[in-house]
Write a structure and sequence with these properties.
279 residues, alpha/beta, 6-stranded parallel beta sheet, 3-stranded parallel beta sheet, 11 strands, globular
């Protein structure tokens, strides 16, 4: 029987540890989030960040702009936050309106205040095996989950479906740094199921409900489901959970797997960045 990787339980443990550490600090960490427009999903995610921050004792600032804001104004605000000693960490909630170049915005954030861990310098540090100021939250959450359940990475074949800049690519580098053999698959990959069936650890991060079927999974594989989609009011993952479950040795549920780990690791990043700024 597969062991369920309980991200909710581990995230609560991490958040409890963070709360204890922050309660003993004279100077509480400060975290600023920029929200552009009124996309319901983005508003929900920012509200979750605000709620978790306040529960942990982190000073939270939300900066909102209308959807028609110009890129120059947004960049100016980021530069102000970069220079503001009262702000330890920040992020700009994605996605942004189409008229704004997201890469320009990400590159403008100081890597020393990059709560998401996705600025070019932080990603570059990971790629050369150096310590970044912060790791990307979802990949860090996945690695922490694998470590908690003592799932061996060294010498294992990890297959990642998805090549995004915030999950697939940085996760590949992080797994490589732990001596896994990594293959990245994407929409142009041929013979996908032949590749995924060789995976000791199969990770899907494409946001396509029940995309990973049982004939794509090797017996006793570890299956990590990063995708979330809504269907008829129900949250679904990338993995056909019920049918893949009997094949797996370990598997994450959706919800309750990678999702809670992402927010816990974001809060962890905020604390660690604030500590770096003290020295």
């Amino acid at each position: 029987m597969a062991i369920i990787l309980d991200g909710k339980k581990l995230s609560e443990k991490i958040l409890h540890e963070l709360e204890e550490k922050i309660s003993n600090l004279d100077k509480k960490p400060s975290f600023a989030v920029i929200l552009v427009g009124n996309d319901p999903a983005s508003e929900l995610y920012v509200n979750i960040k605000e709620k978790k921050s306040k529960l942990l004792g982190i000073n939270f600032s939300k900066i909102t702009y209308p959807e028609n804001i110009d890129e120059k104004t947004l960049l100016k605000k980021i530069e102000e936050l970069n220079k503001d000693d009262k702000i330890d960490a920040m992020l700009v909630q994605m996605p942004l309106p189409k008229h704004i170049n997201a890469q320009n915005i990400i590159q403008a954030i100081s890597p020393k205040k990059d709560a998401d861990g996705i600025t070019p310098e932080n990603i570059g540090r990971i790629s050369i095996g150096a310590e970044p100021f912060a790791y990307p939250c979802t990949p860090l959450g996945i690695v922490k989950l694998l470590e908690e359940y003592k799932i061996e990475l060294q010498g294992k074949h990890a297959v990642i479906i998805g090549r995004s800049n915030i999950v697939g690519k940085p996760l590949a580098q992080m797994l490589l740094n732990k001596n896994a053999t990594v293959t990245i698959c994407h929409s142009k990959t041929k013979n996908l199921s032949q590749i995924t069936k060789t995976a000791d650890i199969l990770i899907s991060a494409i946001g396509s409900p029940k995309f990973v079927k049982k004939d794509m999974v090797k017996q006793n594989a570890t299956v990590i489901d990063v995708g979330t989609s809504k269907s008829k009011g129900k949250t679904l993952g990338d993995v056909d959970f019920e049918n893949v479950l009997p094949l797996s040795s370990y598997i994450t549920p959706v919800p309750g797997g990678v999702g809670p780990m992402t927010i816990a690791c974001l809060m962890k990043n905020v604390l660690e960045i604030s500590r770096l700024r003290l020295y």
